[in-house]
Each structure stands twice: as structure tokens, then as C-alpha cells.
UniProtKB/TrEMBL annotation:
GO terms for biological process: cell division; cell wall organization; D-alanine biosynthetic process; peptidoglycan biosynthetic process; regulation of cell shape. Belongs to the MurCDEF family. MurF subfamily. Its cofactor is pyridoxal 5'-phosphate. Keywords: ATP-binding, Cell cycle, Cell division, Cell shape, Cell wall biogenesis/degradation, Cytoplasm, Isomerase, Ligase, Nucleotide-binding, Peptidoglycan synthesis, Pyridoxal phosphate. The gene is alr. This is Multifunctional fusion protein. It catalyses: D-alanyl-D-alanine + UDP-N-acetyl-alpha-D-muramoyl-L-alanyl-gamma-D-glutamyl-meso-2,6-diaminopimelate + ATP = UDP-N-acetyl-alpha-D-muramoyl-L-alanyl-gamma-D-glutamyl-meso-2,6-diaminopimeloyl-D-alanyl-D-alanine + ADP + phosphate + H(+); L-alanine = D-alanine. Substrate binds at residues 603, 782. Residues 713-841 form the Alanine racemase C-terminal domain. The active site is at 506 (proton acceptor), 734 (proton acceptor). It is found in: Cytoplasm.
Length: 843
């Protein structure tokens, strides 16, 4: 291409079929974004999207304040936004997609389109690592694979790129038909066809058919696919099919010979991952190493190898690129130290897009606390490097970041640009070594600070993070905020557009830090939060959350807190109402309350025949507003008690009708908990209350069978702290309850019943080490436990131990542990000790 393409406002208007209402037609747009909460680069375009539960046009001013120079809109008065250039279109999402398709058409480079039920991002990153050995590669950032993410990805392609690797994901029928004209792949990859996100795709056959739509115009070009996929076998594959598979044998199940163009054979587990060979179509066998755990990644590697070879990459480059591939263990891991400093660790990679996203996360989670950004060099940017670092500095200056620390030579440009853009010099530091950075942080950090680590991996910034993370106990509870987000949307889809959602974050988020979970859900559009006591709601208010917060145990003695912090009490006694009235007068406020009707739980609440008279009394009090009405199901999770649950619903409806007849109309009516939300559609009313379901967990198997589209968000891990060989006949642990029948290797792990590893796991409970189930031997102690690791090759001190969660292809669930102890998952989660560090993970 002889000249670099540029997008002016005039061109954008033309390509989108829109009208430039105001602004400089020749203004060159640097970037395009859709999130008004994220900082914008100079001369960016904000796309005001409309969704089921939001209107992006409400945030045009906010986007302008974050640096956007223009906005793509479908309605609104231009006079309301005097500082923003406006392009009006009929539909902003369709316009964004048309713009991306046009931009894609300007580049005559190979475009790899990747789809599948699982592994899309990993295959994309593996292939990019391989291709980067010989070419300049553009790949979709993060998991940008949606109707919004794909066009934003495509708009990142630049003339210096030799090839683009684009990820495409769908959750509903018909979505791929909109993605295909934008991506127009010249080589396709299907990773697999499974049940992930199947809620909107009905079954495996439909899922396969919809995924194949991405390759409808592939013509005779290659399509990489898994040879043994039965759902794909139902269809004539487009393009020129190229298959991959794992050979059967002791390392992969199966009795028959597998026929595939690229066949993984001779798999051997190593200390870091796997060594294996691949038979290529010409019959040659080539050895490879994969330095990541999990046997499922062998199939991902096979797909990447097949694609790379088909694209003409040399075997040596494939070998080097695959060996260099690493999973991202540092993808926005968040935790708080004993000293009260919160770390956001994203020191795995950095580029202009992910750096701005990380700054947005820092600003969001810091709330009113001091936000400190440690930014290192962004590598592999070529000729764009200086401009990209300068632009990032301008972004920092226009965010709510309180302090900037620049690490590395290129990062100094970030600091200089931030100062030029208005950030004061005494809030900017530049350091050139990890030791200097560590000394600076030891001097400057104080309780409440929120600190981001962000740089390209080869800068070694993670070493500074690791020094500070040494205070983190080996026992850790990982909370996947992406999974919580996905589970929230799965539940919203299930209950429908007319029903809102109250997120129950009581007991500090079922044993987690409810603040970060609540902040995540607030970003996704949750309608309200619910806690058990006022003291659980106050930290949420102090973090800047303005959503309604329902307090289910409102005490008269805490009426001052309820009113002062605008919490919504659940009331059913006159004593609490009188206390609220007194405090409302003191603070000159009106208090919004919800009434609870006891329809059969017999715990708290108004009897059905008492509710109307109580509501009449409250309606006569000026300081009190009856905002909501609710009840609590006793057994919505138990099919044997469905008749009783329906009786509760009928009783509740009768009370609601009585209130309406009296002219009392609560705005928010809610009855269903997690079980009710999934199992009783007639109990959805205005909102549902969901707690455990947000974590991808279910109170009973009857509920779990209904929970399409959700997945577990929690993992409890620790480490091996000691290894010891015991001889036959020796005993282990207190009271000598376990005796070795033959020589065994015993690992001591850093988790005991004080951490929430229950004592009923003694002598037979299992944990995961090295991807294998290992039995607990002897009694679980207060601070440690002992595990038989004889069958784990190369087990060593420091190895990860999974108490519940996934490791490799194995998994232990919370429900499995609860079943062993005859208890419920709620109790296990709430009993995880504060000593166990909570680490929040999000992409």
C-alpha cells in the first residue's frame, strides 16, 4: 500500500451512511471506542451504542471529558454537546460494523478467522506467537470476539501488519452472519464444538452450523478443524478442510486409529507442560514443546501448528513460536495486602489498547482511594512506538490517576507527555531499575492505595510485583470477575428484559470481597445490591457505588447508618420504622423501604393478613416511602417442595393485589432467589435476587440442571510447603489415624481448618496437584494438611494445590466437597478464612 489509510470524519460519515452534523470534516480520527468510562486517545471517536439495559447517548459528555473529540450517534440534539463533533446514523452498532468492514477491505493481507466453543483466545495467541517469528502480526486484543469486539478489533489493523488473526464468538443464532462480512477470513480455524455459551444456540448441531457461517465465503481456501468432531461431521465443510487430532493411546483415549492431516503423537508430560511430535501431511514427524499445563492445550497447539504450516511458516519458526507461548497468569489479578494496599497485576503484556483498558480498571476500582499507575515500556510497536507512548501519557493525564511511575526508557515518554498534558511533575516518577522502583514503593505506598503494574513481559516488571506479593499467603481464593460478568448476563437472558436483578452480596460476597464483585456488576448494569446488615453496605457506598442497596436485616439500633448512607431497609416491625422516622427527620431525608411478607419461611416478616394494615400505617408517614415488597422462598431449590413454593407465590400475589386495591403500588416487587430465578418464571415479578448463582454455583442439583450458560467463578488454591518420604508402617498426623501400607511421599500443604479447608476432608478427601487427584492422609490440622503425592511425578515444594477449581483436565467442585461433609456450598464459602488471600482476576 503506497499510502497509509486514514479515517476522517467525512470518510466515516460516508462509509457508515451517516450525516456529519457538526465538526471539522477533515479531522483525522486516531481511535474508536465504545466505553465512556475508559480514557480516550486524542482525536478519538466515541460510538454511542444502545443496548437492552443502557443508552450510550447518555454518556457522550463523559466520553468527551475523557478525551473523545467526536461521537457516532443515532439521536440527540447537537446543541447539547458543543465540544463534540457528531455523526448521525440510523443504528450505531450497524454503522460501526459497516465501518469495520470497509476498513478491513483496505488491507490486502491474509486474515485468519478463529471460532469455536472453547480455546479461541488461546489458539489465537498461540498462532500469533508462531507467526511473529517471521511476520508482523495483528491479533484481536484480549477476547474481543463479540458483535462489538470484532469491529473494534478490525479497526486496529494498520499498514505495517503482514497478517491479521481475528477471533469470533457468538451466543445466539444469526450473529455469525453479521461477523462474516466484516472479517472475510482467508483461512479459517474451528477449535471445537461444545456446550459453552449453548444457551442461545440450543444444541451441538445448531452450534456447529452457526459457527460454520464464518466460513461461508471461504471458497477453496483452508479450513482447519478437529477431525473427530461429531457435530461438524453432520455438515459439508466449506473451503478446503484441513484436520487435526490427537492420536489415541496411553496419552489420549481411544482404540481406533485416528486419521488427520496433523496428528499429535508421542505425548510426554514435562515439568513445564508437554513434549510431543506432530505428523504432518507429508508424513514427516516434527518434535515440539508446549510450556503450558493442561492436556486440552495439546488440541489448541495442533490447531495453531496446522494453521501456521498451511500459511507457509517454517517448522523451526513454528517450534520456536510455540515454545515461547505462555498463558497469561497475570491478567489483571487483583488483591489487597495485610497493609491495605490493593495491587492490580497486569505485567504480562502491554500495548496501547490493553494499557488504556488497564488504566480504566485502575480508575474504576480505586474509587475514592489513591490510584497509582506503574507503566513500563510497550514493546514491539515499531515505528509507532514513540507516538503510542506519547499518546498514552496524554491519556494518563486525563484520567483520575493520582500518581504515575514510569519504568523503562520508552516509558519516560509517557511521563513527559503526561506532564505536558497537565499532570503535575511532583506526581510523576521515572525509574530505571526494579530495585529503584521497589525502594520508591516501600517509601510511598500507604493503606488504601490501589496500584497497577502494566508493561510488556520482557520488561520484567512482574518481578517488582512479586516482591510486593510476598506478603500474600500461599492459600488463595481466586475470583474470576469475567465469569461473574458472564453469569450475570446468562441470568438476565433467562429472566427476560422485563425483569431486573438484585445482586445479593451479603456476608461480604459469600466470603469474597463484596466491593469488587459489586463494582463489576455495577459496570454491567445490575439494578440493585442486597446485603444482610448495614455495616456491609457502608463500604460499598464509600467506594462510590450509588446503586440502591437493600439491607435485609435492618435493626432499629442502626437506623442512623441506614439513613446516613442511603441504604434501603427491609422492614416488618413498627420499632424499626419509628427509629427510621427519627433519623430521617435528623438528616432531613425520606427513607425508602421494602416490606417483607412471610409466606411460609417462618423466619422474619409480616404475616400475610398483617401486611395491608402495616402498609397503611407506613403510607401515612411522610418520612417513609414504600418502595418495594418481597418474600423469601423456603424450598425453591427442592422439586419435592414445588407445591409449597407455588403456594408461597399465590399467597404473595394475593397480598400484592390487596395493596394495589388500597392504592399502594410498590415500584419493586421481588420474590425469587437464585433457585426461584431459574425454576419459577411466574415468580420473577419486577426483579429477582441472585447471590450464589452469580458465582456459577447452585444450591442443589435440581437447580444446576437449569443453569445454562453459567460457569464456576471461584478457585481455592494453596502450595506445597514440605515433602517427606514415609516408610511402610509409619503414621501421619494427629492421633495417628493414617498408616502407610507401603513407602509413600507425603506433601504438607498450607491449608487447614482455620483457612476453611474442612476437617471432614481428613483421610480420603482429595485435592489436585500436577493435574492429578491426591488423597488427604491423616487429620486436617489447624494450619496445614498432609496429602499423598507418591503418584505425582516431580512434585516439589511450591507447587500449586487446588482445593476446588480446575487444574489441567481435572476439576474438584465446591459441591463435591460439600457432599463429602454433608453440608452446603454456602457454608464452605463463608467459612474460608480472612487469612486466605482473595485474588480477583479479569481480562
Amino acid at each position: 500500500m503506497s499510502q497509509s489509510p486514514q479515517l476522517t470524519l467525512e470518510q466515516i460519515a460516508r462509509l457508515t451512511g451517516g450525516e456529519l452534523l457538526c465538526g471539522d470534516a477533515d479531522l483525522v480520527i486516531s481511535e474508536i471506542g465504545t466505553d465512556s468510562r475508559a480514557p480516550f486517545a486524542q482525536n478519538s471517536l466515541f460510538v454511542a451504542l444502545d443496548g437492552e439495559h443502557f443508552d450510550g447517548h447518555r454518556f457522550i459528555t463523559e466520553a468527551s471529558e475523557k478525551g473523545a473529540a467526536a461521537a457516532l450517534v443515532s439521536h440527540g440534539d447537537p446543541l447539547a454537546y458543543p465540544d463534540v463533533a457528531l455523526i448521525r446514523v440510523d443504528d450505531t452498532l450497524e454503522a460501526l460494523q459497516r465501518l469495520a468492514a470497509s476498513w478491513r477491505g483496505l488491507f490486502d493481507v491474509p486474515v485468519v478467522g478463529i471460532t469455536g466453543s472453547n480455546g479461541k483466545t488461546i489458539v489465537k495467541d498461540m498462532l500469533a506467537s508462531i507467526l511473529a517469528q517471521e511476520q508482523t502480526v495483528f491479533r484481536s486484543p484480549g477476547s474481543y470476539n463479540s458483535q462489538i469486539g470484532v469491529p473494534l478489533s478490525l479497526l486496529g489493523i494498520r499498514p505495517e501488519h503482514d497478517i491479521a488473526v481475528i477471533e469470533a464468538g457468538i451466543s445466539r443464532i444469526g450473529e455469525m452472519e453479521r461477523l462474516e462480512p466484516m472479517i472475510r477470513p482467508t483461512l479459517g480455524i474451528i477449535t471445537n464444538i461444545g456446550l459453552a455459551h449453548a444457551a442461545g444456540l440450543n444444541d451441538l448441531a445448531t452450534t456447529a452450523r452457526e459457527k460454520l457461517e464464518l466460513f461461508a465465503n471461504l471458497d477453496d481456501r483452508p479450513l482447519i478443524y478437529p477431525a473427530e468432531s461429531k457435530p461438524l461431521g453432520r455438515y459439508k465443510l466449506p473451503g478446503t478442510p484441513v484436520s487435526f487430532a490427537i492420536a489415541p493411546g496411553k496419552d489420549a483415549p481411544g482404540d481406533e486409529k485416528t486419521d488427520a492431516d496433523y496428528l499429535v503423537e508421542r505425548v510426554a508430560q514435562t515439568s513445564q507442560g508437554f513434549a510431543f511430535s506432530v505428523q504432518f501431511p507429508d508424513g514427516a514427524h516434527h518434535p515440539f514443546a508446549l510450556n503450558v499445563p493442561g492436556r486440552h492445550n495439546l488440541a489448541n497447539a495442533a490447531a495453531a501448528i496446522a494453521a501456521a504450516d498451511t500459511l507457509g511458516v517454517s517448522v523451526e519458526a513454528i517450534r520456536e513460536g510455540l515454545a515461547a507461548f505462555e498463558l497469561s497468569p497475570l491478567r489483571l489479578e487483583m488483591h489487597t495486602t495485610q497493609e491495605g494496599v490493593t495491587f492490580i497485576n497486569d505485567a504480562y503484556s502491554s500495548d496501547p489498547v490493553s494499557a488504556r483498558a488497564a488504566l480504566s480498571v485502575l480508575e474504576h476500582y480505586a474509587g475514592q482511594q489513591r490510584a497509582i499507575a506503574i507503566l513500563g515500556d510497550m514493546l514491539d510497536l515499531g515505528a509507532r512506538s514513540t507516538a503510542a507512548h506519547r499518546q498514552l501519557g496524554q491519556v494518563v493525564a486525563h484520567t483520575g490517576i493520582d500518581r504515575l511511575i514510569c519504568y523503562g526508557e520508552r516509558a519516560q515518554t509517557i511521563g513527559k507527555a503526561a506532564q505536558t498534558a497537565g499532570m503535575t511533575a511532583d506526581h510523576i516518577d521515572c525509574v530505571d531499575s526494579i530495585d529503584t522502583l521497589h525502594d520508591l514503593l516501600e517509601r510511598e505506598l500507604r493503606s488504601g492505595d490501589v496500584v497497577l503494574f502494566k508493561a510488556s513481559r520482557t520488561m520484567g516488571l512482574e518481578r517488582a510485583a512479586e516482591r510486593l506479593l510476598e506478603s500474600v499467603a500461599p492459600a488463595r481464593l481466586y475470583i474470576d470477575l469475567n465469569a461473574i460478568r458472564d453469569n450475570y448476563h446468562a441470568i438476565r437472558r433467562h429472566v427476560g428484559d422485563g425483569t431486573g436483578l438484585i445482586a445479593v452480596v451479603k456476608s461480604f460476597g459469600y466470603g469474597n470481597d463484596s466491593t469488587r464483585v459489586s463494582q463489576t456488576l455495577a459496570r454491567e448494569g445490575v439494578d440493585a445490591l442486597a446485603v444482610a446488615y448495614a455495616d456491609e453496605g457502608i463500604p460499598l457506598r464509600k467506594r462510590g457505588l450509588t446503586l440502591p442497596i437493600l439491607v435485609t436485616n435492618a435493626l432499629a439500633s442502626e437506623a442512623d447508618k441506614l439513613v446516613k448512607y442511603d441504604l434501603t431497609p427491609l422492614v416488618y416491625s413498627r420499632g424499626v420504622v419509628d427509629a427510621l422516622r427519627t433519623q430521617a427527620r435528623r438528616f432531613s431525608k425520606r427513607v425508602h423501604v421494602h416490606l417483607e411478607v412471610d409466606t411460609g419461611m417462618n423466619r422474619v416478616g409480616l404475616k400475610p393478613d398483617e401486611t395491608l394494615s402495616f402498609a397503611r400505617e407506613l403510607a401515612a408517614i411522610d418520612e417513609i416511602v414504600i418502595e418495594g415488597l418481597m418474600t423469601h422462598f423456603a424450598a425453591a431449590d427442592d422439586p419435592d417442595e414445588d407445591a409449597f413454593t407455588r403456594q408461597q407465590i399465590d399467597t404473595f400475589k394475593t397480598v400484592l393485589d390487596q395493596l394495589h386495591a388500597e392504592g399502594i403500588h410498590p415500584n419493586v416487587v421481588h420474590a425469587a432467589n437464585t433457585a426461584g430465578a431459574w425454576r419459577f418464571p411466574d415468580a420473577h415479578f419486577d426483579r429477582v435476587r441472585v447471590g450464589l448463582g452469580l458465582y456459577g454455583l447452585s444450591p442443589t442439583p435440581a437447580v444446576s440442571r437449569e443453569t445454562d450458560g453459567t460457569h464456576a467463578a471461584l478457585a481455592f488454591t494453596t502450595r506445597i510447603i514440605h515433602l517427606k518420604d514415609v516408610a511402610a508402617g509409619e503414621t501421619v498426623g494427629y492421633n495417628r489415624t493414617w498408616t502407610a501400607e507401603q513407602p509413600r511421599t507425603i506433601a504438607t500443604i498450607a491449608a487447614g481448618y482455620n483457612d476453611g479447608f474442612p476437617r471432614f476432608m481428613s483421610n480420603g478427601g482429595e485435592v489436585l496437584i500436577g493435574g492429578r487427584r491426591c488423597p488427604v492422609v491423616g487429620n486436617v490440622c489447624m494450619d496445614v494438611s498432609m496429602v499423598d503425592v507418591t503418584d505425582v511425578p516431580n512434585a516439589k515444594v511450591g507447587d500449586e494445590v487446588v482445593i476446588f477449581g480446575h487444574q489441567g483436565s481435572e476439576a474438584i467442585t465446591v459441591d463435591e466437597i460439600a457432599g463429602r461433609g454433608g453440608t452446603i456450598s454456602y457454608e464452605l464459602l463463608c467459612n474460608i478464612s480472612p487469612r486466605v488471600r482473595r485474588i480477583f482476576v479479569r481480562q
